[in-house]
Each structure stands twice: as structure tokens, then as C-alpha cells.
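Internal ticket - ligand job 204, coenzyme A:
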Amino acid sequence: MDIHSSSYVHPTAIVEAGAIIEPEARVWHFSHVREGARLGALTAIGRDVYIDKNVELGRGTRVQNGVSIYNGVEVGSWCFIGPHAIFTNDLHPRVGKRTWTLQHTVLRDGMSIGAGAIIRCGVEIGAFAMIGAGAVVTKSIPSFSLAVGLPAEVESLICACGETRVALDANASELIQACCRNLLNPEVLALAEVHAKQFRRTDE
Ligand SMILES: CC(C)(COP(=O)(O)OP(=O)(O)OC[C@H]1O[C@@H](n2cnc3c(N)ncnc32)[C@H](O)[C@@H]1OP(=O)(O)O)[C@@H](O)C(=O)NCCC(=O)NCCS
Ligand SMILES: [Zn+2]
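stdout (C-alpha cells):
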């Protein structure tokens, strides 16, 4: 167990030996951080959160109450995971199988997941994407995209701070707007600028 002296772990939380809690992280009531897990600097995990073995949360990421993040989920920096969002890591679960295949899920920097959304394993949620409350994500969502519903579909693009919808055919320059410059802290704004520059580059 390696808890940085500037971090706070509530006395009711369990942090197993072999977990790493980086500077200025916060772990609230009744949460459980397994061996091999790493909470990056400035992360915050709320009440009743379970961070499975070897799960790493990037710098500044926030996990709201009642979320279990299982082995196989990769979480970037400055991600927001809303209350009671659900993750999975076995696509065809059965008791009594000789073996099973762990399916990975990737959450890229700056993305947000709304309350109660279900993220089926095997998908990637792109940088600064936003998943609406209650969505069921069954396929990967590109960066800066807003997806809602069951199954989740992309409705529009969304700016870096999440306040302004952006047309699907917009240019990368429209992903960062005045609202983002006003609202985002400088580090997140700089990260968004990096990801906005990479936007759609792979399709071109
Ligand atoms: C998806 C979201 C970002 C859209 O925000 P918005 O654009 O301000 O939403 P609006 O209220 O203008 O709704 C626009 C339309 O989308 C629909 N809609 C909104 N949120 C939706 C959701 N989560 N799932 C399905 N449809 C949704 C609305 O019903 C409305 O439909 P209509 O055009 O047919 O009337 C927002 O509703 C949301 O789910 N945010 C996440 C909240 C959350 O879980 N926060 C966690 C921390 S507390
Ligand atoms: Zn904005």
C-alpha cells in the first residue's frame, strides 16, 4: 500500500496492499481499492466505489458514488464517471465455464459518462466524448461525440467543456469554444486542445 501523504482516505475505505494512491487523491466512505490498482494524482472516488485489481485511473479523474470499475477497464486523465454507471468485462458470462475471455474497455482522456449508463465491454469512448444518463453503450464512441439512448447513438458533437452541442460535420476548430475557455481549468483546456488537433485525423 503506497498512499501519498497529501492524499485523503476515509477511515471506512479499504485500500489493499499493493495499491498506489498518488498525491492529492481522495477516497471517500466505504470504497475499496484492490491490490495493483493506481489512483492518479488529483483523482477523487466517491462513496461505495470499487476499483478492481490493476485498474488505473489517470490524473484528475473523478468517479461518483456507487461505481465498480473492473479489471480490463482503462481510464484516462480528467474523466468523469457519473453515479452508478456500470462497467462489464465478460461479454458472454456463464458460471461453470473452464475459462473466460476478459474484454477490455478504454475510456480516453476528458470523456464523461452520465448517471446509470451501462458500458458494455469491448468498446472505446473517445477523448472528451459525453455519454448521456442511462445510455447503454454497445459500440465505440468517437472523441468529442455526444451519445445517448439504448443502444447509444451519436447525436451530435460536443465542445470540450460539455456545454455546447456542435454539428456533426463541424471542423476541429469548433470543438473548443468560448465556453470552454471560460470554464475549463488550464490543464484540461490544454489537453482538450491536443485531442481536438487529433480529431478525425485518422479518417482523413
Ligand atoms: C445527454 C445530455 C448531455 C443532453 O443534454 P441537453 O442537450 O442539455 O439535453 P436537452 O434537455 O436539451 O434534451 C435534448 C433532447 O435529448 C433528450 N435527452 C436528453 N438526455 C437524454 C438521455 N440521457 N437519454 C436519452 N435522451 C435524452 C431529451 O429528451 C430531448 O429530446 P427531444 O428533443 O425529443 O425533446 C444530458 O441530458 C445528460 O444526460 N447529461 C448527463 C447528466 C448526468 O448523468 N450527470 C451525472 C452527474 S450528476
Ligand atoms: Zn464549451
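Auto-summary: Residues 82, 114-115, 130, 132-134, 148-149, 165 surround coenzyme A (ligand 1) (CB under 6 Å). The first helix runs from residue 178 to 183.
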